[in-house]
Write a structure and sequence with these properties.
A: 538 residues; mainly beta; B: 266 residues; alpha+beta; two-stranded antiparallel ribbon
């Protein structure tokens, strides 16, 4: 009798918990991620960086029935910028500083939790203690840590499979990004661009953690591009790689945004264009070899990292089918590039800027004299935090529209003098931003090919949250004031909002479980999961 | 451990430019005097470690303004040093990687931004107190040490946080002391004028605003929740205040005495 009960219990558990099995995410599943209606398998939802959900249950007619289904309170307080992944009923998210939690995606109940203690002497310069999410491949979950490691966890238990040292935190290297898993490799970049690091992008063997290749973002002595750094300034030239790139599996090309040169605001010590900072690098996935680069802001002196998510789109351009890369840059320009060759096709301001007359035929900005930071202060649009920042844009393939959260804001930029010291700030100035009601926040819908604005939605203040578009003809976003909201993707009309009472720094995502669609935001110290009111909650 | 090297000439240039810009954007003049550092090294450290979020001169950025603040997490300078070393849990402010001595120097500089030294003041505080409670009618809107009405800001220790020029300006032209934003200490006192689609017209102080809602507090202290989707017109009255200016209702001596009284509130 006891045996029968035990047998019944085991069978019952097997059936009842059939959604909570170890993730098995093949590379091919990642390639096909955007057509996977139930799951969210990469940071941006797909290799193409679209942050688009093909789900339609929540749409312009049903969105007013959206209600909270469950809320997860992070266990270690801090800024929550994670984009959760959902794999076959299990949600994997990161908590500050670098912890990973697996939840039952339908109910929010915790399945396992992995905690990474941080050393007392952890060096963080220029950014908060955040982590933006994990990658999955096969039966492993990958997390990059603030203390400079890449760790592979067993997807079913959270146990450590391997960990590898990526970069030296005593030099202010740190990792905040969600890794990107491709065929047999895990790709990571580094933070630390305000501390005089030399940036790089690494690929690690997904099974063993061994370094497969490293590509520096600052060319070394004798390498092409090193001549764009005067006075040996390349050695501490920054070029951090702190956000997740995009990937074209057919071309085997990774597209990775590169951060500002160092020191940030005083360019006198680094004469030249300072390649490959404040631009985009295209690297071969197998080898890390650079195929092309495009520098949005040569000799950047405003901290306009170019790390914003590259969006990959196939479209007809001037009568010819082209593989395109779209980028709404922190410097306030919108770019259309050929992603096979790096050829500049089009560029236009999408937000107010006062530093360039425009772009020349190669995409190089035509600088307006006198817009550099100065000892006396120089007023420039956009501000140090840029027209957009870490938070993701979204692209809807249904209406070929590019959605982006925009910070319309200026600042008075100063430069000071600074000398490099290991593990110390290497910034050389700062800003007095013109804040409050002098600054505005917006969601812009841009025509993907022309960059022309289709509609705009006013936020109260410059946002720190990204957007998600869906096949339900919706755009989801969030505000600093504590609003989650949904807009009509065609018109920008606000259709739904929920006040959660804290600032949001979120990139929304969506998934489906047991035929119910959910939308996920983070805000304050919590992760919120919304679903339609008719769907069952637990 | 060495500290970041920052050229003194450039620091002086930055200070000079801050002075000019402060005048241009009508930052109350006390801010300028507050930027004269107690510790030059503290200011240099602040520029290196803190200004990215708090702005050069502590004028605010992603982090709040530190000027003229009633700190909620620090009652004395050593509290600020502790916050520098530990960060503030649950906020963007993480631990700053400096030595304890450097933290103390940063704290000293920040404290200097937020506090005004006790100094001799022209005028008669006792007479000013009578004006405050009497013909000025100030107590009908302000609380001092628990007494009065809480429409305007509590002035219980305003003399420790605000210098004489600011206090005088807030009496004569109170709208100029209200920041254009929501991070300053007076941000909840921005005057707004609203016309709703049902015909209601209101003027009051903006207590909260987001993309969908504006909370307004009227001159009687009543709160109104107003949906922007039903709003025909919203005017933010920058440079204005619900509080009347006293430049024409009090004479020069009365104003001086009133300012002396407020300066004595520490």
């Amino acid at each position: 009798m006891v045996k029968l009960r035990f047998f019944t219990l085991i069978v019952g558990l097997l059936f009842y918990s059939n959604t909570q099995v170890a993730a098995q995410v093949s590379y091919q599943r990642l390639v096909d991620a955007e057509s996977d209606h139930n799951n969210w398998l990469t940071y941006s939802g797909s290799y193409s960086g679209h942050r688009f959900s093909p789900l339609t249950d929540i749409n312009t007619k049903t969105v007013n029935q959206l209600v909270p289904k469950w809320v997860y309170q992070v266990k270690s307080p801090g800024i929550v910028e994670t984009t959760p992944l959902v794999v076959d009923g299990v949600m994997y998210l990161t908590e500050p500083p670098s912890n990973v939690t697996a939840l039952d995606a339908e109910t929010g109940r915790t399945l396992w939790r992995w905690t990474r203690p941080m050393p007392d002497d952890l060096i963080i310069i220029g950014f908060p203690r955040v982590n933006r999410g994990v990658a999955v491949l096969d039966d492993r979950v990958y997390v990059a840590t603030l203390d400079g490691y890449l760790v592979a966890l067993d997807a079913s238990s959270g146990d450590v499979r391997w960990e590898t040292h990526v970069a030296d935190n005593s030099l202010a290297y740190s990792l905040t990004l969600a890794p990107l898993a491709i065929d047999g490799k895990v790709i990571v970049g580094v933070s630390g661009g305000e501390a005089g690091i030399r940036g790089f992008i690494d690929a690690y063997d997904a099974a063993t953690g061994e370094l497969a290749w490293r590509t520096w973002t600052i060319p070394g002595l004798g390498e092409p591009g090193n001549e764009t750094w005067g006075n040996d300034s390349w050695m501490h030239g920054a070029g951090a790689t702190w956000l997740t790139g995009s990937y074209d599996p057919e071309l085997d090309l990774l597209y990775w945004g590169i951060g500002n040169p160092g020191p940030d605001w005083n360019g006198d010590v680094r004469p030249g264009d300072n390649l490959y900072t404040s631009g985009i690098m295209a690297l071969e996935g197998k080898t890390g070899e650079m195929k092309w680069h495009f520098q949005a802001t040569p000799h950047d002196t405003h901290d306009w990292d170019s790390n914003q998510i590259p969006i990959l789109v196939d479209a007809v351009w001037e009568g010819q089918p082209r593989k395109l890369l779209l980028n709404a840059n922190r410097n306030a320009f919108y770019y259309v590039l050929d992603r096979e060759t790096g050829e500049f096709l089009h560029g236009t301001p999408y937000a107010k800027q006062t530093w360039a007359e425009g772009l020349d035929t190669s995409g190089r900005p035509i600088n307006i004299p006198g817009m550099e930071p100065s000892y006396e202060g120089t007023l420039v649009w956009p501000s140090l935090q840029g027209a957009t920042n870490w938070f993701s844009p979204s692209y809807s393939p249904l209406n070929r529209t590019f959605y982006v959260s925009v910070r319309e804001m200026s600042a008075i930029y100063y430069k000071t003098d600074v000398e490099y010291e290991e593990g110390r700030p290497y910034m050389s100035g700062g800003e007095q931003r013109l804040d409050g009601d002098d600054a505005q926040g917006w969601i812009y819908a841009l025509d993907a090919l022309s960059g022309k604005k289709q509609w705009e939605f006013r936020l109260h203040s410059p946002p720190w949250s990204g957007v998600l578009s869906t096949a339900g003809n919706l755009v989801f976003g969030a505000s600093n004031e504590g609003n989650f909201f949904a807009l009509n993707a065609t018109s920008g009309e606000a259709l739904w909002s929920f006040y959660f009472g804290a600032g949001a720094r979120t990139n929304p995502m969506s998934f489906r479980q047991n035929s119910n669609q959910y939308v996920v935001f983070s805000g304050g110290n919590s992760v919120y999961v919304f679903g339609l009111s008719g769907a069952q909650g637990f | 451990m060495k500290t970041p090297s920052t050229g003194k000439s450039s620091i002086r240039s930055v200070k000079y430019s801050l002075y000019l810009i402060s005048l241009l954007i009508l930052i109350p003049t006390e801010v300028i005097s507050a930027q004269q550092p107690i510790s030059t090294q503290g200011e240099e450290l602040f520029i290196g470690y803190c200004s990215r979020c708090h702005g050069i001169g502590g004028t605010g950025g992603e982090g709040p303004s530190l000027q003229g603040r009633q700190f909620t997490r620090a009652t004395e300078e050593s509290d600020l040093a502790r916050l520098v070393l530990t960060g503030i849990s649950g906020t963007v402010m993480s631990r700053t990687w400096v030595t304890r001595d450097e933290a103390n120097q940063i704290a000293s500089y920040v404290w200097s931004l937020a506090r005004v030294d006790d100094q001799p003041v022209e005028g008669d505080p006792l007479s000013g107190s009578e004006i405050f409670s009497g013909i000025g009618g100030c107590a009908s809107c302000h609380i001092i040490n628990g007494k009065g009405v809480g429409i305007g800001p509590d002035l219980s220790n305003v003399g420790a946080r605000r210098g004489i020029p600011f206090l005088r300006e807030s009496v004569v032209a109170p709208g100029t002391s209200i920041p254009k934003g929501e991070r300053g200490s007076h941000s909840n006192f921005l005057a707004v004028r609203v016309e709703m689609d049902d015909g209601r017209k209101m003027r009051g102080m903006r207590i909260n605003e987001d993309a969908f809602i504006l909370n307004l507090r009227d001159t009687e202290g009543r709160y109104h929740m107003l949906q922007k989707s039903h709003m025909n017109k919203l005017t933010r009255e920058f440079g204005e205040s619900i509080m009347p200016g006293y430049g024409s209702t009090l004479n020069s001596e009365q104003i001086t005495n009133l300012v002396a009284y407020m300066a004595s509130l520490r």
